[in-house]
Amino acid sequence: MGVSGSVTAKFNEVAKIVSNIVKHPEPPAWPMYKTRLRNQADFYSLFAAVAAISKNGAIENSPISLAERLKSFIESVEHEDLRNANNQATIYFTAARSNSNDTGSRRSRIRIIRDVLMDRSE
User: What pTM value is reported for the model?
Assistant: First the structure.
């Protein structure tokens, strides 16, 4: 498989993982597609975080547990009271709202989503 084929295979692998995450929990419990993850910067952050995790090996957690962690975090980001009580949610929200294309903001969002998916604390 050439470089192009391996890049395509990796992209498809990450896309499949992301798809499995966002379809859990199944609607109507919490339709993830109706959250801020529908925004380009937020979706890119999720996609890049999954790619970074899978680069170091397979993601070991089930899509359901990943979705539950992501759901909890996104709820914190989207609700001001919860966000104010969660430093990472505050940092993520700020990075997503101001200069979302800035390299530093992008890296910050990806790192935070990666840590959420890997169940790492600050």
Answer: 0.86
Tens of pLDDT along 73-105? Answer: 999 999 999 999 999 999 999 999 877 778 999
**Which conformational region is residue 64 in: left (phi greater than 0), alpha (psi within -120 to 50 degrees), or beta?**
alpha
Can you tell me the distance from the alpha carbon of 70 to that of 20, in angstroms, rounded to the nearest whole number? Answer: 12
Spatial distance between the Cα atoms of 82 and 118, rounded to a whole number of angstroms: 21
d(CA 84, CA 104): 21
Q: Determine contact, residues 116/73, Cβ cutoff 8 Å.
A: yes
* First CA to last CA distance, the chain: 39
